[in-house]
Amino acid sequence: MTDMRTWGLVDPSELRRTVVISPHLDDAVLGCAHLLARWPGSTVLTVFAGAPAEYPDPVTRWDALAGFTTADQPLAARRQEDTRALATLDASAVWLDFVEHQYLDRADWVQPDAIVETLDNALRGLDPTAVFVPFGLGNPDHACTHDAAMRVREGYDGPAWFCYEDTGYKHIPGLLAWRVAQLFRACLWPTPAAPPVDLSAARKRAALAHYESQMKALDADWELARNLAAPAPEQYWRLAPPPPGWERLSGAG
């Protein structure tokens, strides 16, 4: 008989060196603060943390919602916010210099192929035992980060790999289910996991409070303050092969 008692559990040894891959300077804390709080010394590797050669004038809609003006350097300010937020969770930051899509013409948006090698090298340099990747929902930078990370995963099977749900975007009707189905058809079998976490809402709120600019914009777009006040725990999904003999469910066998 198959022993199902340990399904979903995550061995603490897998989380000794946790790396959370974040599209932007806030996404990891929004989606994984309880995890980061439980595992001090973790690293947040942010992909789109680079400043454009020149900021738009007038400012983008998002930067305007965040309170920035043409006199500001948003990415410099956001890096400072990120440093303070992660310090609250005893985590450290690694920033890649890719430029987020809001500052680029559509034809110049960063594509996964441009990210894979840099992301792979940065990740291997951290020697993680577990990697948490966004599902990549609703935002071009999130989707690009997810796709690039999945490419890295194909050649890097040492760590345990997980996905986490993109805050805000996961509530778009059907989008999370679409991504789970997509991964399932690719034989990655996304399965809800239950790693040991720190469920202190106060600690997550304290970390998020340091993202002063982004919380303004997120609240305007998603009514985030109301969302965070609801009992909505973070959810992580393991990416791993199914039990032997179950492959037929995904059409793989």
Biggest sheet descriptor: 7 strands, mixed
Give helix % range: 25-40%
Overall shape: it is globular
Residue runs with pLDDT of under 50 for 5 or more positions:
none
- What is the percentage of strand-forming residues? 5-15%
Mean pLDDT: 92
- SSE order: EHEHHEHEHEHEHHHE
Cα-atom Rg, whole angstroms?
A: 18 Å
Number of helices: 9
Termini gap: 21 Å
Structural class of the helices, strands and pairings?
alpha/beta
Spatial ordering of strands, largest sheet: 3-2-1-4-5-7-6
Number of beta-strand segments: 7
Description:
- The chain is α/β, with parallel strands linked by helices and 253 residues long.
- It has nine helices and seven strands.
- A seven-stranded mixed β-sheet has the order 3-2-1-4-5-7-6, sandwiched between helices.
- The longest helix is centred in the N-terminal third of the chain and has 15 residues, at 74-88.
Short description:
This protein is α/β, with parallel strands linked by helices and 253 residues long. 39% of the residues lie in helices and 12% in strands.
Jot down its keywords.
253 residues
Q: How is the topology of this model organized?
A:
Layout: E1 18-22, H1 27-38, E2 43-46, H2 61-65, H3 74-88, E3 92-95, H4 112-126, E4 130-134, H5 140-154, E5 160-164, H6 175-185, E6 191-193, H7 201-209, H8 212-222, H9 224-229, E7 236-239
Parallel strand pairs: 1-2, 1-4, 2-3, 4-5
Antiparallel strand pairs: 5-7, 6-7
Helix pairs in contact: 1-7, 3-7, 4-5
